[in-house]
Every structure is written in structure tokens, then in C-alpha cells.
Please model this.
Amino acid sequence: MNAPDTLTPNSYRAQPDDRGHFGEFGGRYVAETLMPLVLDLDRAYRAAKEDPAFAAQFDDLLEHYVGRPSPLYYAERLTEALRESAPDGKGAQIWFKRDELNHTGAHKINNCIGQILLAMRMGKTRIIAETGAGQHGVATATVCARFGLPCVIYMGAKDVERQAPNVFRMKLLGAEVRPVTSGAHTLKDAMNEAMRDWVANVHDTFYIIGTAAGPHPYPELVRDFQSVIGTEARAQMLSRINRLPDLLVAAIGGGSNAIGLFHPFLDDADVKMLGVEAAGHGLDKEHAASLAGGSPGILHGNKTYLLQDEDGQITEAHSISAGLDYPGIGPEHSWLHSIGRVEYTSATDVEALDAFQLLCRTEGIIPALEPSHAIAAVAKRAREMDRDQIILANLCGRGDKDIFTVAEALGVKM
Amino acid sequence: MTRLSAAFAQAHPALVTFVTAGDPTPGATPAILDALVAGGADVIELGMPFTDPMADGPAIQAANLRSLAAGTKTADILSIAKAFRARHPETPLVLMGYANPMTIRGADWFAAAAQDAGVDGVICVDIPPEEDEELGPALRAAGIDLIRLATPTTDAARLPTVLDGASGFVYYVSVAGITGLQQAVQSSIEEAVARLKAATDIPVAVGFGIRTPDQAAAVAKVADGVVVGSAIVDLVAQHGADAPEAVRAYIQSLASAIRAARMEEVA
Model:
């Protein structure tokens, strides 16, 4: 946990306000039944932030259970490979924050540790969560096993099918996985179902939301728990090469790994940042790029950019990556987009698949399909940047879970 | 006196009935609304379908999807409301739904469109008092009641926040949960209504899980209004094109039970 920040009025790190607004985004748009609980959670989180014992327990679990700090790695062969097709003198150095080496294989566990500690502080005895790719579901099932709490995971039926290994992992860990068959059977529908469970079980249930979205204070607390990524990376950069990176890159579904990397750097004026949304089949076709192809609206407890029609009906997202297959984005990203502090771009399914294979072959790292979108953007940007410049990308998950999806996309029978 | 306050000023508690607009098609809704009035409904809640009805149970979720699959647009819902107002000058009509379809074109646009359609009140499930500015000021300026929800989790400390800015009636959601599943025990409803009525002069209507005439009668003994939704939506799902007659008969059974219940109380 970070110590409370000393904020200047001009800081980009001073959001949200006490009602959970990041500029015009964020807020608490929930049914009245949930509102008292959301306010309780806010009070409990403020108290936890002030309690050194909470921070100590969080830090201890991250070190000894999750395996932090995760390494900072210079991807020399990827850098060289991209220089071969770059103009003379171009080809930035590429570094990775290796959050795929965390216990459970992704950054999701950082947040789950923080939230389950909060749940126990609040006396809650039952945990629910939604999951898309299954990484957040696995991380939630893991911390529930670790602390002995019953766990129900809502997962779109389509995702249950395309992420079978993670479904089995969750079951091994003792979680009950409930396939969701409403809507498009994906992450958004799993989140609807989790909220329905929550509203019916407010007395004993804590909802561990997996991304930096939802009603306040979720976007803030998920960001704070995930900020360990950027805080470590910033210190590691300074200690390894005594300078900060020129560009940070991270993939964005809801945006928790990206905000975790970006937030500690937001007031470093010389550090540029690039969030990479999933362009699916292309921005003119089916995709999951809420900023590039959406508009502001209200869903799942917050105001943020959403994929929707002119009547405010939510449209279905598409990405080859189940973890990015969501028609919204965390409200802090909407704000950072609106003020221009962070640049946002997108990568298609095909570009992500290419980047996935590139990293496998050049670095001996099988990335998840989510960070493969970030790597696709890195490959483009590195060729345009000078050789002495530095890109730091978040390798937020490992690809073991995705090999079946990738095999199918490449026409390989397993 | 507004249409809503007149509906709650009658000798019997108001029967508040919900259907989803456009379910099963936009063309089918007017006859269903007429059947509600013919059966004795005192207030009509017209549900605005949404792709992600997070607070609703399976019955109303399915109704939302049927309506959207039939191509229902916001413009259709407003036309249905406007035509209803022309046919039924006295029966109050309340739009009920989720924030995004209501605010997508801006609160002022929505308030003006609702006013033009002769809408009396709005219930927005996912705009709590803390986010009132999203919709509340525009509705009040247009003379439309913003109907607030109170729930079993709304404690005494919070109740004034909920009531501040509420008008028309207060909708007491008697179950912490989603629509259409279980009904609260009578004693908890009685206790909650007493608590609400001690805090406000606005009529209190009770809903969630009320299906049978007996249940409606029991609630009618203590509340100013009885809200029935999922059970009507189930009839629409079951009877399709023949729904109006089934709905009318069902509403009549509820209306009779409510009137009889209050007469027993008085006697």
C-alpha cells in the first residue's frame, strides 16, 4: 500500500472527489438497496487506509503469497527484432513489468488480496465475483481458499466454454462457478448477475469487483491495490537505469492493470502513457473499444464511456480476449482520456495474435491475449521511437489459459 | 391536485401496476395498458426496457429482452405514453427504468419528452439520492414527480436523504433482492411502512413479490398503495396476443381484494 499522497492542486493523482467522481465520470449509480452497503464500504476503506496493520498485512501477503515485487525485465531480443524493421536510428528499448509471474498468473490477485482483507474487516462471510477470462475468478477463488470463505463466481456461459481450464481451476480451489445465460453470455452479463446476487445477500456478502470500475469506492480502491504495479516499476526503473521510461503501455478492458501501472507515474510530466483497447474484428465492425467507439453513459454503478446505441441500450462487445470483452471502461480512464493525460489506441484480434506469437518466439514468454494487445501497440510505437528511448509495458497475464483459443484462431487442432 | 395525488386520495389504497413497454411488441402495449385501467389499476408504471436490468428478476429481465428484440425504441415508449394520456386523461402514468436510457440524450431532453407525453412521475432504479442532479432537477422543473425507492437497508440515518426531493409517492421495496421472487413477511412490511409514514406525508406504496389477491389485501391494510409487476409480466409472457383479457381479469381480482381489505379495516 502507498502512504497517503501529498497532493498538489494540479495533481493528476487527486481523483476521485469524496463522492467518487473523476471529473464528470465515476459516481455511485446503484439501487437503493445497495447504497447503504456502498457507503459502508467507503467508510471501511477509509479506515483501512489509515490503519498501518492493514497495509502491513497487504504488503506481507503480496510479498510471500503473491511473489512480489514482480521483476522488471529488459526484452532485448524483442527490441532487436523490432529494430530490424524500423527506420535507421529507430527502435525503442522495450521493458516489461512481469506481473504474469504473480501467483495465479496475472495482476488480478493484487486486488483480490486487498478486497478480501477489506471483506473480513467488514465482517462479511461470503464472497462473490464476476469473471470474463477467468483470471479474476481464479484469483478470487484463490484468496477465498486462502482465507476459508465460501465463494461464488459468475461467468458468462460463452466464457465458461472458451476458458475451460480456468473454470476447472476455480472448481479445484473450491469455488462454485455459476454460468450466466442472460444477454450475450459474457462479462457484462456476469456482472449483472453478480449485482443481483449482491442485492439479495447484502447482509453477509462482499462483492470482489475485478476491475477499476463499478460504484465508488471500487474504482478507487481497485486502483490503489493495483498501484503496487506502477509503484514497484517506477522504483525499479530508477534503481536499474536511473531514469523513468518515456512511454508506458498497458491493455485495457475495464482497465485495472493499466491504471495500476499508470497512476504512480501520472505526475511525471515526461512520461507518456498509452492504453490499448481491444479492436476485435476492427473498429468499424464488432469490437470492445469503449473510448474509440463509445460515448459516456451509466452502467454497473458508474458513469463512463460505454458501447451503446442512440437510446442508451448497451451493445455487445467483441474481443478474442475474454478479459477485454466488456462494453465499458473504468471511469478514471474516461477522465484521463477526456483531459488528454493518457493516450488511448486499440489493437485488433489479428494484431494481438501476431504480437502473442512474436513474444513467444523472441523472448520465450507466452503472454495472455490481454497484454498481447499492449504488445501489438508496443511493436508499432517502438519502431517510431529513438533507440535511446524506453517503453515500459505491463505484461499483466500469462497465456497458458489462452492456448486453446490461439490454436483455434491459428487453425491448429489440439 | 396532481393525477398521482388524486390516485392516492381515494377511499381505497392505490393499485399500482407495472408492465414493460413494448412487451411483446410496441403495438401490443396499448391494449394491455387499457386492460390494466379496465381491471381497476389506479397507477400505471410503464417500464422502459434496458439491455442490463440489474435490479430485476428473471420475469422482467425476459420482458426487457422481448421488448428490445421486437425493436422497441425510446420514441415508441413516449408515443405509447402520449396515446395513453389521450385515451385516459385521469390515470397517472409513471415511467420506470434505468439511468442510461433516461439520461442518454440529457436530463432536460428526457424531462421535456416525458412532460410532452403526459407522464406524471419517473422511477429510476439506479440513480440514488446522492446522484440526484443527474435527473432530479430537470424532472422537478418539468413538474414531474421523482419517485424515490426505500428498502429494508434504508436505515433511519439515511431515510431523510431518500425522502429529500421525493414526491408523488415513496416506493417501499419490501425485499432486499431483485423483482419477482419472494415476498417479505407481513410484520416487516408493517414495521417499515410505519417507519416511513412517521417520516413523510407522501403516500407509501409497497412492492416486490406481491402476486396473489390475498397478499395484495394484506399489504393494502397497512400501505397507501400496492405495487404488482412481475405477476402481470408473467401473464403477458404466457398469453401473448391474448394477454389483455387475462390481465384485466387478474387486475380486477387484485383491485377487489384491495378494496375489500380496506373496508374490513374501516369496519
Observations:
- The mean pLDDT of chain B is 95.
- The two ends of chain B are 28 Å apart (CA to CA).
- Chain B has one domain: 3-266.
